Structures are given as C-alpha cells and as structure tokens.
Amino acid sequence: xxxxxxxxxxxxxxxxxxxxxxxxxxxxxxxxxxxxxxxxxxxxxxxxxxxxxxxxxxxxxxxxxxxxxxxxxxxxxxxxxxxxxxxxxxxxxxxxxxxxxxxxxxxxxxxxxxxxxxxxxxxxxxxxxxxxxxxxxxxxxxxxxxxxxxxxxxxxxxxxxxxxxxxxxxxxxxxxxxxxxxxxxxxxxxxxxxxxxxxxxxxxxxxxxxxxxxxxxxxxxxxxxxxxxxxxxxxxxxxxxxxxxxxxxxxxxxxxxxxxxxxxxxxxxxxxxxxxxxxxxxxxxxxxxxxxxxxxxxxxxxxxxxxxxxxxxxxxxxxxxxxxxxxxxxxxxxxxxxxxxxxxxxxxxxxxxxxxxxxxxxxxxxxxxxxxxxxxxxxxxxxxxxxxxxxxxxxxxxxxxxxxxxxxxxxxxxxxxxx
Amino acid sequence: xxxxxxxxxxxxxxxxxxxxxxxxxxxxxxxxxxxxxxxxxxxxxxxxxxxxxxxxxxxxxxxxxxxxxxxxxxxxxxxxxxxxxxxxxxxxxxxxxxxxxxxxxxxxxxxxxxxxxxxxxxxxxxxxxxxxxxxxxxxxxxxxxxxxxxxxxxxxxxxxxxxxxxxxxxxxxxxxxxxxxxxxxxxxxxxxxxxxxxxxxxxxxxxxxxxxxxxxxxxxxxx
Lengths: 419, 223
Description:
The complex is a heterodimer of chains A (419) and B (223).
Chain A: H1 3-16, H2 18-54, E1 60-63, H3 73-76, H4 102-111, E2 115-130, E3 133-142, H5 144-151, E4 157-160, H6 164-167, E5 171-175, H7 176-182, E6 189-194, E7 199-208, H8 213-216, E8 219-223, H9 224-231, E9 240-245, H10 251-262, E10 265-268, H11 269-272, H12 274-312, H13 314-322, H14 327-362, H15 382-408, H16 412-417
Parallel strand pairs in A: 3-8, 5-7
Antiparallel strand pairs in A: 1-9, 1-10, 2-3, 2-6, 2-9, 4-7, 5-8, 6-7
Helix pairs in contact in A: 1-14, 2-12, 2-14, 2-15, 12-15, 14-15
Chain B: E1 3-14, E2 20-31, E3 35-40, H1 46-53, E4 61-66, E5 69-70, H2 76-86, E6 87-90, H3 102-113, H4 118-131, H5 147-159, E7 165-169, H6 177-194, E8 197-201, H7 205-209, E9 213-218, E10 221-222
Parallel strand pairs in B: 3-8, 3-9, 6-7, 7-8
Antiparallel strand pairs in B: 1-2, 1-4, 4-5, 9-10
C-alpha cells in the first residue's frame, strides 16, 4: 500500500476540518493529561504514606513476646500423646524479654545476603518524674547511627540532634508532646524512675515527632548503653533486633524462617501493617479507573467527529473509490486520521500531565504529622507516560475503527448516482 | 481482437423494487479508438449500464470484459486497481476533492497507480492541464473554479493514467451551452488526435449525433 499517499489524503481531510480535529485532540489531551496527573499525584501520596510506615518500621522484628509456654506438660505425657488436650486457665509464663544468643544471631545476620542491615534495640518501661507527678513512658535504647541509616531516625527529630545520643553520655530524646507535658527544654535534666525503683537523671538533647501523637506522648530514645545501664543489665542485653531486608516482599517468608531458626518471635511488616497495603491498592485502582474513564469519554468524542467527517466527506470517499482507491485504502485513511488525533492529542496530554504534576509538586503542603514533607508529593514514573500514550493510541484506534469500516463499505454508485 | 470493452448478456434487477428488470440482455463491444454514446430517456437504464461497465456496480448477471479480462470473479480490491489503471471517469457533477489544489486532484490517481516518480507525475499532470488549456489554474483550490473549469479538471484527472477508456456520465448535463461545447470539443479532440476510446452516457441527442456510434436504449434494452 502507498502509505505516503494515504497520509497525504488523511492530512488534507484532517486539516479541512481542523476545528473539529482540534476539539477531538483536546479531548484526548485532557484525558491523558488528567490521567497522568492523577496517577502521579495518587501514587506520590501512596509512596509518601508507605514511606511513613515502610521506612521507619523494621521489615522483620525479632523479639520475645509475653505468652504461655507452647510446650505444656500434658502434651509431653506418653499416655496422652495421640490426644487433643484442652488446657483451661493457662497463664503466660515469666519469659525473659531478652533475645537469647543475641551475638550469635547478629553474626549470622551480618552474613545473610538477603539482609540490608539491622539494629539492636532495648525497650523498657519507666516513669518520668515531674514534681509530684510520675508519667508513664517507654525508653528505647537504640544504636543512633544505624537507626538513622536504616529507619530514617533523623527525619523525625524536630529539635536538637540524633547524633548527640552517642556523643553525650546519659542523653535522651523525648517525644515533643511528652517534653511539653514535662515542661522540659533541650539541655534540661530529665529525672527517670525505672520499674525496679532506681532513679536516674538523663539530659534532654532532642525532640522527635513521629506523626502519631499518642506514640509521641510516651516514647523516648537513649543510646543502647544508657538503657542497659538504667536497667542494670550487661552490655549484651537487647530485647529486639530490627531488620531491614533487601526485598521488601520477602519479609513474611524471612520472618517465618528466622522465628524457627533463632527460636524467637518474628513479625514482618506486612502482618504488622496490613491496612496500609489495602489502602495503597484501592487508591491506585481509583486513579486508574478515573483516568481510563476520562479517556473513554475522549474516545467517544473522536468517534462522533469521525462519523460526522464521514458524512461530510461521503462524496470524496465515493470519488476516491471511483478513481481506484479500494475500501481498504479508504479505511486506512480514516484510521490514520483517528490515530493521528490520538497520537498528537496524547503527546500534548503528556506535556499537560507533566506540567500539572510539576505545579502540584510546588504547592506547599505542611503538616505536623510529616515534618520532612514540604510540598505535595508527586511520583514522576515514566511508566504512566508510556501507559498514557499507548492507551490514547489504542482508544483512538478503536474509536476510529467502526467509522472507518463504514467509510470503506460505502457504495460509490449510490452516492454518485444519488446526486 | 481489439475489443477494449465487451458486454455479454448483461441483465440487472433492482431487488428493492420487486425485482423490476432495469437491464435486459445487453450485448455490445467497443474497439480501440471508438467514440460511443449511449442515449435514452430517463429510466431507460443507460446510467445503470455505465456503472455496471465501470466495475463499480457488481450486482448484475452476465459478463463485462475489459481488455480481454473478465470482471466477473474479481474482488473489490482488484476492481479498484482496474478502475485506477484502465478507466477514466467523468461525472455529471465534477466530483473533485475540495481539500486539494487542481494539480493535486489531477495527480491523485497517478499517485495511487504508483508507477512513476513524483516529478514525473507532476510533469504528466501539467501536460494534461496544458492540453485542456487550464494549466494556469493548477495551483487554484477547486472551489475557486467555475463549473466548466471544474469539468475540464475532471477530464484531465480521467486522463492522467492514460486509461484504455474514458467513461462519462452526462458530462455536459450540468453545464451551459458554451461550456458544453467546450467539453464536447475536448472529447472530440481526444478521440481524433489521441485515438482515445470514449464511452459517453447522455440524454442530449445533439451531443450524441456528433459521436462515431450511438447506442440507444429503452426499458433496459438496446434498440
């Protein structure tokens, strides 16, 4: 087939009705532009919200939970071996919170290819003393530099410095609302009473804000050493190993493996934050369906305009037929018209989408919950642009297909004689 | 032999009018260089016959033979090629494409034929326009032309692929006397000087009289 000629004729017909063609193309532009903007914005939000959880939550957490001993005496008794034993009024045993063989586990984790890194933690209950008032709180002994690398610890420090936990002895970082309750400023002394009744004084070096206010009202951080000292424990005492893995999706499998291997409890991020994933998926579905709806509306516009064009140009079609253009040529001409509306409209749509995304990206967005975010989040994923242009071409092809087929089946005799 | 166009036992019924017969066993042939006119009253079937012969209407019984090849079992696509290559059309209404200039309109069938390069096609088209004395109009848009000029452009377009035969359906039906005269003279010149085979359907006896051969039709048959 002579594509050059087909293009030439398609172009002439397109330009002869350039106003309608422009309106059709603007429909596509609008659809694609909105599609891209919507997806960029929605997935940007998704990533930000996911980041809130994924970045600072360990992918796998090894710890010892308070729970009843799983191997009860009756189950071990030969006599009742094959039975299903019901045990009533079972109490949780006084398990140690400490991770057994911590050093050995950490050595093994260091060699594990699938692990990006890990951090030791020690969590203990304390009271913060404020005059006659004792406020319930939690001290997390952490390795500040590892927490910064793996779990973006420093992003949530709103005053002071995270590094001071290591540099200054007996340093503590309090949740901002907790510090406000205790009427403390940076540099002040924080009196603490442990569960065992020992009293310590720590120095306030920073404030943090996680975005979850209830958490910030009780949480505080010290170095691992300080926490061990407060508890009167040796320097290998830890209650939790927080692991960040390389492949986020493999966390549940790894958690099961570690639980078995190291004989601890292990919790993966997916189990701990099941609701987040659901939200992410639903937001994505909504944005895709709205975007595709916009495109389908645009496609109907193209369908209408092509149909009108065919009515208007029915004489031209008949004459093309008479001078030797086959039905297939005529069909190609109208498909070319439709596809060029789709392609150029789509291309403009990509530009519009990028521009709108860029504008949204600059709108200030300040919220107390998210100290690191200053503007609305946008995800500039090239995939959206690819999907946009492919979809615009596909929909306009479909919109043009039926009118083009109709044009190709026009009987020139009826048109020419009917005049 | 030298038969360019042959009609063998052509009959046609209109299905939607209860099977009324519009063409009834038509037989004739046209040889190279013939200038033939088909005349008859309205409804005598002369235009219908022309469209059957032109390969655009495929709903008939009998056989149309163009250049010694039967059109009977050809597909629409193949018929389109035949029309492009071997037949030039002139209609009552000019039927030019308004989106293109005069020159482009004339060149279009040659582009479709795709046998010559662009500059060659342009040269051929200019020659045809020159021959019909309308070369000065080549860059004009179609809607800037008068009726007579349009019809001459249509003739130039019919000639561009050097067709075996030119078929014309009431080519002067929409023109005044002066322009009719011009168009007729062109046909005569083509016939005389270039030995062009021409088949014209007309209801104008004056026009028909000046052709080499007249086929008169009434009620779907040749008289």
